[in-house]
Amino acid sequence: MAISPDYLDHLLDQFAGFGAVEVRRMFSGVGIFRDGLMIGLVTGDTLYFKTDDANRGDFEAAGMAPFSFDRQGRRMVTSYFEAPAEVFDDADALVRWARSAHEAALRADRAKGGKTKAKRAKRPARAKAKAKPAPKRARPKAKSPRKAKRPVRRRR
């Protein structure tokens, strides 16, 4: 489903109080990223936030459903839940829900070993080792000529 530019612009205006976010096109929607972690998903003019065991109850209590899709005849349910309607009118509410989603993304990243692009970028650069020249190849050995086979004599 296509995302209307007006919807996305309004949404990004609401995110201003949360801090810098990056939007990347994905399949039929966009992903919302902060610090290299995906915290939200927008598809079909619907915003979904990242959840885990710590914050999923808040979304369920607000009556929100998870993002799901059909794949090869099976229903796939994700860890992204629909954002409450209040986030579109109240920027402070969006910041609270987005912060919760960011914390869930951080916990998920830590559980995977913390390998986000943002963390890699903060590490000091390693000195590159000089490339070793390729070893010289020995000339291939010349094949020794085979001895000529004696003709087979047939007895009569």
Task: Give a verbal description of the structure.
Helix content is 28%, strand content 24%. The protein is an alpha+beta fold. It has one domain (5-119): YgaC/TfoX-N like chaperone (Yope Regulator, Chain: A, 2-Layer Sandwich), CATH 3.30.1460. The longest helix is centred in the middle third of the chain and has 21 residues, at 91-111. The relative contact order is 0.14.
Give the tags.
alpha+beta; six-stranded antiparallel sheet; 28% helix; 156 residues; Yope Regulator, Chain: A
The residue-averaged pLDDT reads: 83
Please report the total strand number as a whole number: 6
CATH architecture descriptor: 2-Layer Sandwich
Strand content: 15-25%
Write the CATH homologous superfamily: YgaC/TfoX-N like chaperone
> Which fold name corresponds to the CATH topology?
Yope Regulator, Chain: A
CATH class type: Alpha Beta
Label the overall shape. Answer: elongated
Helix content range of the residues, please?
Answer: 25-40%
Intertermini distance: 90 Å
Reading the helices and strands in chain order gives HEEEEHEEHH
What is the count of helical runs? 4
Largest sheet: 6 strands, antiparallel
Strand order of the largest sheet: 1-2-3-4-6-5
Number of domains: 1
**Radius of gyration, whole Å:** 30 Å
- Unreliable segments (pLDDT under 50, ≥5 consecutive)? none
Structural class: alpha+beta
SSE layout:
Blueprint: H1 5-14, E1 22-26, E2 29-34, E3 37-43, E4 46-50, H2 56-61, E5 66-71, E6 74-82, H3 91-111, H4 117-122
Summarize, please.
The chain is α+β, with helices and mostly antiparallel strands and 156 residues long. Helix content is 28%, strand content 24%. It contains 4 helices and 6 strands, in the order αββββαββαα.
